[in-house]
Design goal:
CATH topology of the largest domain: Rossmann fold
Structural class: alpha/beta
Number of domains: 2
Number of strands: 13
Helix content: 25-40%
CATH superfamily of the largest domain: P-loop containing nucleotide triphosphate hydrolases
Order of helices and strands: HEEEHEHEHHHEHEHEEHEHEEHEH
CATH class of the largest domain: Alpha Beta
Strand order of the largest sheet: 5-6-7-3-8-9
Bound molecules: adenosine-5'-triphosphate
Distance between the termini: 30 Å
């Protein structure tokens, strides 16, 4: 029991033991296109640091174990476990108030969890917040920009906080891609343009880890696509990307893995494709002549959604379709259509479960 009198939460999957503290990982990764500006971005060549920790660091750049966070009496995180692997794009999905921002802020030690362990890039952010932040590109959910500065002034300010590691050629490229005038006063910017400044400041030092809280929020569709392209380019250059979103289609488009958070717990983590594949599919079948639908309804896992008139019917199958296809082979099938749910539908099912539990 924690001294504060609460237990570490509902869900606790045991993760590998985390090794002792490590210095910033400089395991060699050659600069690639995203990092092609002289590799002054934190990627170095020394391979001599602690091997055990480096191995963890190399494979898993973010580890959170049993995170519990209280705001006063309100518990926002219930023993949240999370692992983000090096070089992946990880989409963090969850309804409003699920705990996405809280999690991200704990990862950077912007707020302290009441319980649990965090390692980012092999470092403990509570002990080394500056080192972690210097190697990370962070976009907060609500970015404060000083209105009296210009865009460039604001970017210079963020750059100074990270030891002036920014790449100004890259900044100019980003500004041009986002159609952002570096000379504009912040006070004149629309919400979307401020968001672009936030994205640029997160990327400008070509960090090895991007922690982005809703990076496309408030951007128009073209700019949303530009952000997604940049995330892919960052990944192609060796960066790891962790981003939260409400927009399922964008997570589906770029993330290799997705985590779904609900009421302070990670309720699902899976490869994006796996999550979609193993979800229920709807199948429309047409037959050349009427068939007895009850025969198909008996196939394990198959649900008859609509028996139709015997020459067409609507079925539902979870995951594998082998049993159904083998059974259908004995019937005179004229047409067969499957409908996969989008990540959006899967996510909505989690929303629904949440709403029912709350009621
Ligand atoms: P959204 O998608 O709406 O941004 P989120 O998933 O990022 O939501 P959080 O901002 O992490 O959710 O909030 C998680 C819960 O903690 C919410 O119920 C929120 O009201 C509560 N919360 C967050 N910050 C505070 C705070 N400073 N004081 C009290 N409660 C807070």
């Amino acid at each position: 029991m924690h001294p504060g009198g609460f237990s570490p939460g509902r869900a606790c999957r045991i993760l590998p033991q985390i090794g002792q503290e490590v210095k910033p990982n400089r395991l060699a990764r050659g600069p690639t296109s995203w990092y092609n500006a002289g590799a002054t971005n934190g990627w170095g060549s020394s391979k001599t640091q602690f091997v055990k920790e480096a191995r963890i660091n190399e494979q898993t750049v973010v580890i959170a174990q049993g995170l519990v966070k209280f705001y006063g009496n309100f518990q926002a995180l219930y023993g949240l476990n999370l692992e983000v692997r090096r070089g992946e794009i990880f989409g963090f999905l969850g309804p409003n108030g699920a705990g996405k921002t809280t999690t991200i802020r704990c990862l950077l030690d912007l707020i302290h969890p009441n319980w649990g362990t965090v390692r980012v890039l092999g470092l403990n952010p509570q002990a080394n917040p500056v080192a972690v932040r210097a190697r990370t590109g962070y976009l907060p959910g609500e970015l404060h920009l000083e209105p009296s500065l210009t865009v460039e002034g604001a970017l210079r300010y963020f750059n100074a906080l990270r030891g002036n590691k920014g790449d100004w050629d890259f900044v100019r490229q980003l500004a041009s891609r986002f159609d952002l005038d570096l000379k504009s006063p912040i006070k004149n910017l629309s919400h979307g343009n401020k968001q672009k400044v936030g994205v640029v400041q997160a990327l400008m030092h070509r960090p090895e880890l991007l922690l982005l809280d809703e990076p496309t929020l408030g951007l128009d569709p073209l700019m949303q696509q530009e952000v997604l392209r940049l995330l892919k380019e960052a990944r192609a250059g060796g960066a790891t990307v962790f981003f939260s979103s409400h927009i399922m289609s964008e997570v589906e488009a770029v993330a290799e893995r997705v985590g779904i958070i609900r009421r302070g717990e990670l309720v699902e983590v899976a490869e994006t494709a796996t999550l979609i594949n193993r979800a229920l599919r709807r199948i429309k079948v047409r037959f050349k002549q009427p068939v007895d639908s009850s025969l198909l309804a008996k196939v394990p896992g198959v649900t008859l959604l609509s028996p139709g008139d015997g020459t067409s019917m609507l079925l539902q199958v979870p995951g594998e379709m082998d049993g159904l296809i083998k059974t259908l082979a004995g019937f005179p099938v004229s047409d067969f259509e499957t409908e996969r749910p989008s990540l959006e539908e899967i996510f909505l099912a989690y929303y629904e479960a949440d709403r029912k539990e709350v009621k």
